[in-house]
């Protein structure tokens, strides 16, 4: 007989898991490195999805664990049962291209139904003091888990299989920043176009604001949504954590966001905002309000100290702090009629790395 779950709202459990992680004895712990919030496992529970840290140092101190129970898995808190959890399995990831490249080296299932990849797995800032301290983009390349540059036709092939076998409904493409003025946008456009031609799936791409705004226009018919990531509104914090980003004037971000909203529409543009790197709540709340007023969705995530990154020894912000931020920003979204549900593709639609959608 199924044991009673301890009363806890799904959104609260998600925040706790994002900030504290979970011990997963005997389970696959998820991808080790890469761009974005790596070193986590995708947890499906209570109608939501969370990308939960499973490998960072602080996970061993988490009150949460995943344990087997009657052929299923459950999340326990200090040994007390909270709820059942499932882990998405992707059949397409077992296939290979004609040349013998495993599909899993080309793209992965993210969240419940999103195909995701880093199209160019190198970054012009990697071997410089400008590198973002939270990033591990080139580590997964070095480990052999992925390939340096994914060709449009390779991604079209993988996307078609992911749609057919695993019912993937949208695609997220990110890129390391290239040394060219387009900052990787040209390749994203080619890949986006190829995926759309092969599958019709909505595509999301992420890039740094280019100096020449017309470069964003090249994405017009190739993708559906874009992410231009400020990471922090506190320029002092940014100087310390992501020096390459502080070299770009904030005005440039605003111009790029505005141009993108003009092209892709309200709520189809987003920005990662990382909490827990030294900023105040005030900076996040004020910055999020500005984004929402521009039509940009603030994708607020707690810091993910990925093993191998320069921030690996840090701790994510407390669940209480994140709950407060999410409640406040959800009210801002409400006040402006913005919701993740309007977004067509990408991290906002996937929502595994942020609990903001769960607080709306
Ligand atoms: S929110 Fe974005 S980075 Fe996180 S799992 Fe989903 S697609 Fe990947």
Task: Break the fold down into its secondary structure elements and pairings.
Layout: H1 10-20, E1 40-45, E2 48-53, E3 64-69, E4 72-77, E5 80-85, E6 108-110, E7 114-118, H2 137-142, H3 152-166, E8 170-174, H4 185-199, E9 203-206, H5 214-217, E10 225-227, H6 235-241, H7 243-246, H8 250-264, E11 269-275, H9 281-294, E12 296-302, H10 319-335, H11 347-350, H12 356-359
Parallel strand pairs: 7-8, 8-9, 9-10, 10-11, 11-12
Antiparallel strand pairs: 1-2, 3-4, 4-5, 6-7
The structure holds iron/sulfur cluster (SF4).
Iron/sulfur cluster is lined by residues 36-37, 51, 110-111, 114, 116, 172, 347, 350, 352-353.
Overview of this structure, please?
By secondary structure, the protein is of the alpha/beta class. The protein has two domains: 10-85, no CATH class; 92-359, TIM Barrel. It contains twelve helices and twelve strands. The chain has helices at residues 10-20, 137-142, 152-166, 185-199, 214-217, 235-241, 243-246, 250-264, 281-294, 319-335, 347-350, 356-359, and strands spanning 40-45, 48-53, 64-69, 72-77, 80-85, 108-110, 114-118, 170-174, 203-206, 225-227, 269-275, 296-302. The protein has a seven-stranded mixed beta sheet. Helix 3 (152-166) packs across helix 4 (185-199) and helix 9 runs parallel beside helix 10 (319-335). It is globular, with a radius of gyration of 19 Å. It starts with 9 loop residues before the first helix and ends with a helix. The model is unreliable at 1-5 (pLDDT under 50). The structure holds iron/sulfur cluster. Iron/sulfur cluster binds next to strand 7 and helix 11.
């Amino acid at each position: 007989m199924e044991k009673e779950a301890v009363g806890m709202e799904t959104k609260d459990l998600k925040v706790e898991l994002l900030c504290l992680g979970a011990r997963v004895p005997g389970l696959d712990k998820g991808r080790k490195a890469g761009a974005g919030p790596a070193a986590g496992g995708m947890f499906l529970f209570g109608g939501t999805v969370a990308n939960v840290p499973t490998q960072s140092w602080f996970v061993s101190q988490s009150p949460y664990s995943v344990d087997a129970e009657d052929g299923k898995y459950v999340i326990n808190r200090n040994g007390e049962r909270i709820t059942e959890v499932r882990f998405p399995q992707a059949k397409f990831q077992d296939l290979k291209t004609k040349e013998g490249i495993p599909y899993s080296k080309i793209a992965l299932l993210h969240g419940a139904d999103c195909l995701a990849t880093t199209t160019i797995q190198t970054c012009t800032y990697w071997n410089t003091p400008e590198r973002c301290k939270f990033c591990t983009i080139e580590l997964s390349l070095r480990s052999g888990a992925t390939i340096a540059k994914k060709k449009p036709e390779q991604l079209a092939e993988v996307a078609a299989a992911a749609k057919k076998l695993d019912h993937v409904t949208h695609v997220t493409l990110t890129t390391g920043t290239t040394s060219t003025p387009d900052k990787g946008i040209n390749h994203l456009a080619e890949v986006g176009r190829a995926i759309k031609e092969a599958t019709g799936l909505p595509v999301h791409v992420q890039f740094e604001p280019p100096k020449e705004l017309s470069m964003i226009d090249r994405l017009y018919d190739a993708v559906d949504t874009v992410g231009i990531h400020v990471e922090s509104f506190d320029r002092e914090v940014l100087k310390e954590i992501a020096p390459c980003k502080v070299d770009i004037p904030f005005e440039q971000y605003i111009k790029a966001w505005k141009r993108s909203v003009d092209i892709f529409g309200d709520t189809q543009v987003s920005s990662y905002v990382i909490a827990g790197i030294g900023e105040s709540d005030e900076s996040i709340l004020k910055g999020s309000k500005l984004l929402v007023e521009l039509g940009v969705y603030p994708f607020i995530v707690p810091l993910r100290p990925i093993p191998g990154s320069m921030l690996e020894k840090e701790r994510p912000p407390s669940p209480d702090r994140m709950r407060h931020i999410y409640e406040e920003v959800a009210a801002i979204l409400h006040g402006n009629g913005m919701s993740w549900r309007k977004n067509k593709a990408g991290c906002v639609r996937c929502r595994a790395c942020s609990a903001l959608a769960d607080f709306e």
